[in-house]
Amino acid sequence: MISVLKNKGYKLTKKDTLNNREFREFGKSFVISDRSTLSDQTYDITEIFELFLDEKFYKESLMMAILDETRDEPIDEITADVERQERGYLITFTTLTQGVT
Fold first, then answer.
1. How far apart are CA 86 and CA 55, in angstroms?
2. CA 28: distance to chain centroid?
3. Edge-to-edge, what's the strand order for the sheet holding 89-100?
4. In angstroms, rounded to a whole number, what is the distance separating the alpha carbons of residues 48 and 84?
5. Contact criterion met (CB below 8 Å) for 43 and 74
6. CA-to-CA distance for 37 and 71, rounded, in angstroms?
7. C or N terminus of the chain, fewer CB within 10 Å?
């Protein structure tokens, strides 16, 4: 997901406050999905990213384009939640990658 957002021209940051066209990795969780004793354990990984866009840059069609670009990524599911804020829009992307060894 980081590569998708960077390719769209957004800047990765570690700051708590996001400025226009900045994004950050907000969190990650791991769940064991297969405890087989015959092979390596596999995990499901959920990652959360936040992107901030001001009113000038936010469009629903842009959200669809970002979701479409994840087709080439090793992501099984992705959702985008959009929250209207005082300064613009906070978009939260949640990705799920299943069966990671």
1. 10
2. 10
3. 11-12, 22-34, 42-53, 89-100, 77-84
4. 18
5. no
6. 32
7. C
CA 91, 8, 14, 47 dihedral sign is positive
Extract the tokens encoding 30: 């791991």
Dihedral of alpha carbons 8, 10, 14, 20, sign: negative
**Amino acid occupying residue 56:** K
Q: Two tokens at 14?
A: 């570690």
pLDDT tens string 75-91: 999 999 999 999 999 99
pLDDT, average across residues 51-76? 95
The Cα 76–Cα 6 span in angstroms is 20
What residue spans define the domains of the chain?
A: 2-12+24-100
CA dist 32 and 52 (Å) reads 32
For the stretch 36-40, contacts whose Cβ atoms lie closer than 8 Å and that sit 24 or more positions apart, written own/partner, are: 40/101
Model confidence, pTM: 0.90
